[in-house]
Amino acid sequence: MRTRPLKVALLGCGVVGSEVARIMTTHADDLAARIGAPVELAGVAVRRPSKVREGIPAELITTDATALVKRGDIDVVVEVIGGIEPARTLITTAFEHGASVVSANKALLAQEGQSLYAAAEQHGRDLYYEAAVAGAIPLIRPLRESLAGDKVNRVLGIVNGTTNFILDKMDTSGAGYSEALDEATALGYAEADPTADVEGFDAAAKAAILAGIAFHTRVRLDDVYREGMTEVTAADFASAKRMGCTIKLLAICERAADGGSVTARVHPAMIPLSHPLASVRGAYNAVFVEADAAGQLMFYGPGAGGSPTASAVLGDLVAVCRNRLNEATGPGESAYTQLPVSPMGDVVTRYHISLDVADKPGVLAQVATVFAEHGVSIDTVRQQGKDGEADLVVVTHRAPDAALSGTVEALRKLDTVRGVASIMRVEGE
Amino acid sequence: MRTRPLKVALLGCGVVGSEVARIMTTHADDLAARIGAPVELAGVAVRRPSKVREGIPAELITTDATALVKRGDIDVVVEVIGGIEPARTLITTAFEHGASVVSANKALLAQEGQSLYAAAEQHGRDLYYEAAVAGAIPLIRPLRESLAGDKVNRVLGIVNGTTNFILDKMDTSGAGYSEALDEATALGYAEADPTADVEGFDAAAKAAILAGIAFHTRVRLDDVYREGMTEVTAADFASAKRMGCTIKLLAICERAADGGSVTARVHPAMIPLSHPLASVRGAYNAVFVEADAAGQLMFYGPGAGGSPTASAVLGDLVAVCRNRLNEATGPGESAYTQLPVSPMGDVVTRYHISLDVADKPGVLAQVATVFAEHGVSIDTVRQQGKDGEADLVVVTHRAPDAALSGTVEALRKLDTVRGVASIMRVEGE
Description:
The structure is a homodimer.
Chain A: E1 6-11, H1 15-26, H2 28-35, E2 39-45, E3 61-62, H3 65-69, E4 76-79, H4 87-96, E5 100-103, H5 106-122, E6 127-128, H6 140-146, E7 152-158, H7 161-173, H8 177-186, H9 195-198, H10 201-215, E8 225-226, H11 234-242, E9 245-255, E10 262-272, E11 284-291, E12 295-302, H12 306-326, E13 348-358, H13 363-373, E14 378-386, E15 389-396, E16 399-400, H14 401-412, E17 417-426
Parallel strand pairs in A: 1-2, 1-4, 2-3, 4-5, 5-6, 8-10, 10-17
Antiparallel strand pairs in A: 7-9, 7-11, 9-10, 11-12, 13-15, 13-16, 13-17, 14-15
């Protein structure tokens, strides 16, 4: 074994960073044996240097992250700051000064993946980011490496633990959204400002990363269609139950049937209770992958949290260190297919539509005509009258989203339709 | 991209090999883009050269596998023959002549992994074998690489599709073992001689491989405790249902609580319906991994079949080819912990014991005394009388297997115990 240690700079020492530092210290012998050389924590950049950080020698702490990544003797920079800046500049500077980079930064990877990969390649260094998607669940590496000889057609996943906790709570307790969110906040599953989670921004960043890797193309955050889950109601769950379904916030990346384009989207959807994703409880994540040869695979585990995320960071750290010793690099960006990303209107899906209609003859015929005019075929209709009004629930067959949303717009204009109580896509069948 | 192709020799062209050859041909451009150089099928060693093999040029076919691996211009040998010999000699010869090796051979890896790794290292070549365990499911790579910075404590998996199909059939239809086996045979899930599957030999080989990788030590096939599932009855399933459980043939690799040893075993066990493995249906495989930092992960997918296994082989082929271009090698054997493998008697588990006893006063006291004398604590007792006899079902708390099996031996000697109807371990709680 080489005795000269590989030097690691840690940018950020919050929930994830402190756990990375702790494991690097307590498991130093194991890491050395697995890498083939010892690893040394050479510096830790933080914002609040006065905070007590157990197990980290005070002389390693610095507030000058830029000077740390510019030192020139750093082999690997671990970036767990999050956000776009200063993370982007620090990572680029790290490459320029000869370091490889392990990052857990989904927002940055989704937005700037291309330029970061280019910088890594220019300087002959690695960019690894298993921790950026679904915490501890090995997902980036299986997609980039295990399935490198296969053709992935679909990635369907629960990639945000906060929203899965809220939806699971609504499902099992009958709670409304606000009540479930309050519980998630009280238990620490939701942040004080939950926007990034509940509006689907976090999941959309992960969808962009997954789609790019799965289809060997570039998918930007702006390419991802996004709907949050704040408008999911207890009534939606009741409807889902009647269909033998539950509701999950899904990130869905698909190759079009003709293979000429891809789509990426995040929205709440009904999925059958028999689907493996339906039984993913609490804050867990799970990702379903469909590939030509492999068939259907699922990866399941904790999608967030300090320790699970640190596990993913350290797995990458071991790989990057091994590459350094080999004077090699792992797989870089693979975007050779250059497949375009189609808009949401081209996605083929099914709608579950719940309408408040007048309970009188001819209404169903009117509604059915609107579907027919938009070329949307109806799978099931269920109508329940009450006091001169009726709930009319229509579940469609598969159709382009543009046709489905066009149908809904036309339904809204019918005099006999008092309102559209809910619209939800149906997936996973 | 490099234009000179990497040359691949294929040993075996059955269900898996023919699919590997097909994908190498039909997806040649994708593989080239992902590797950074074209790959060329340079030779295919078969036993029956006269068989028509669609898509494989006749001039590539040879019956002389030894000459093929000795050619000297082969970059990667893909071994999908199975069995110990001639596979072992061919792989060793391949290393000696400068090739890296991708194998799907679980029996060989379980029995000869150490010497094969040594040969690979001696010649500076790669040995990859993702396809040897759980078909298409990425499992070896996540354990070897993604979790390389973590401490794995437990691997609990359904790693044999044939037996899972049979047990699932017994569970859902109430069929007996023979009837379910017949259906598995008719559908092609079981071989004409199902011994390797139903007696747990196949799963034991996979358990040896998984335990070695998970705990960074050497676990030989002989170290794995093995019980088949041919004696599981419809009555066992009825008992399991009453406990809120089902029955699965599990491969279980564990680190002892004190960390100083490991165990590996294969046997049928009751697991709670709430456990993610309980809902693994048909011939699917799934493996649950528990690690210090990552927590609980699960990997699910098709565990066998030509296409899924080929997917895993091709993922390894891409990785090994990339390493060749980098003039590097991936991770080799990691057995530095040198943890000993403890015998089955040391495993801590729970027993579900079903006894036929005389239905008269004092029997329960006698039985309970035997448990107490062996230091085994009882969790639940259920007794149901019929015609002077009674079924007595005892579920224990956790205890060493030696104490539990000692208890059963002593129970058999009691006059009031007419017979032991079934014994099954309870796992996954």
